[in-house]
Design goal:
Elements: H1 10-17, E1 29-30, H2 33-42, E2 50-54, H3 60-67, E3 72-77, H4 83-92, E4 97-101, E5 117-122, H5 128-136, E6 147-153, H6 154-161, H7 171-179, E7 180-188, E8 193-194, E9 201-208, H8 218-230, H9 236-239, H10 247-253, H11 267-279
Parallel strand pairs: 2-3, 2-5, 3-4, 5-6
Antiparallel strand pairs: 1-8, 6-9, 7-9
Helix pairs in contact: 2-3, 8-11
């Protein structure tokens, strides 16, 4: 395996700093620097960009991002055991890498970043979906980020890119596809990680759209979609009756048969329903 920088292989870094992965932190380390560099390349042209990374661990993806020319990488790492290993990367890339020791769910990274900003991360499994939803639902759009390049369990990745009519299609697909172009760009088997997880993984790349794909009030759309998919086996006239007693009228006005189920309704139709409800 060819080296991407002058730093030692990741297995050596982990052994030196005794960084056994912790299940409680959702850690699965990706040790092949060729793979981490490949993921970094999926993030696009990083020159001139600040990159936010969540959960760098021993720093495999971090090194890939820096080697690919990121102007600066800011990493948020909850596990203080990883800090000495990450400091070695900071020393090798002076002025281009900083680490915040803390919980990504509690830290506002904007105070430390300069646009343009991209996010790239092998997200800890236990917080990945929550972070994605936060990044897709800011108060204002366009968001602070240009793109997201994120590793998920394969099942979650498929939910992000799913189309109507599939079992994977649901709230996550609508949130992602309403405001971004989303695609799976890389698949990884369990054996690529240490320790190997029980499931396969995939990298999803999302490019932020300058404005939502279809007009709709974000709060109303979010409520409608969450309510509809919370009882996805029911017809919409039943699952959405708690939103309005006249829900059948609104469904008709949006061009949606009241007997449809949530997984059969596309993004554009859900947005149309949100607009009809907003009129009330």
């Amino acid at each position: 395996m060819s080296a991407i920088d002058s730093l030692p292989p990741l297995r050596e870094v982990i052994a030196t700093h005794q960084l056994s992965a912790r299940k409680s932190l959702g850690q699965n380390f990706l040790l092949d620097l060729n793979l981490t560099a490949k993921i970094a390349r999926q993030a696009g042209d990083l020159t001139g960009c600040d990159v936010l990374e969540i959960g760098p661990g021993p720093g495999g993806l971090t090194r890939g991002l820096l080697a690919e020319g990121a102007r600066r990488v800011l990493a948020v790492e909850k596990d203080s055991r990883c800090l000495p290993a990450l400091q070695e990367i900071a020393d090798a890339y002076p002025g281009r890498f900083d680490v915040i020791n803390g919980d990504a769910l509690e830290i506002d990274p904007l105070a430390y970043l300069t646009p343009p900003i991209r996010i790239a991360a092998n997200l800890p499994y236990n917080v990945g979906t929550e972070l994605l939803v936060r990044w897709l639902t800011p108060k204002e759009w366009p968001p602070f980020w240009q793109s997201l390049t994120l590793m998920f369990q394969r099942e979650v990745a498929e939910r992000i890119v799913a189309l109507p009519g599939s079992k994977a299609y649901g709230r996550l697909a609508i949130l992602a596809q309403w405001r971004a172009d989303a695609r799976i760009v890389l698949s990884l088997p369990p054996g690529a990680f240490t320790p190997p997880p029980k499931v396969s993984s995939a990298v999803v790349h999302l490019d932020a759209l300058p404005e939502p794909r279809f007009s709709a009030d974000a709060a109303i759309l979010s409520r409608v979609v969450a309510t509809a998919f919370n009882q996805r086996r029911k017809m919409l006239r039943s699952s959405l009756k708690g939103i309005s007693p006249a829900i059948e009228d609104y469904l008709h006005a949006a061009g949606i048969p009241p007997t449809e189920r949530a997984e059969q309704v596309g993004l554009e139709a859900f947005c149309a329903l949100a607009r009809e409800l907003a009129k009330a």
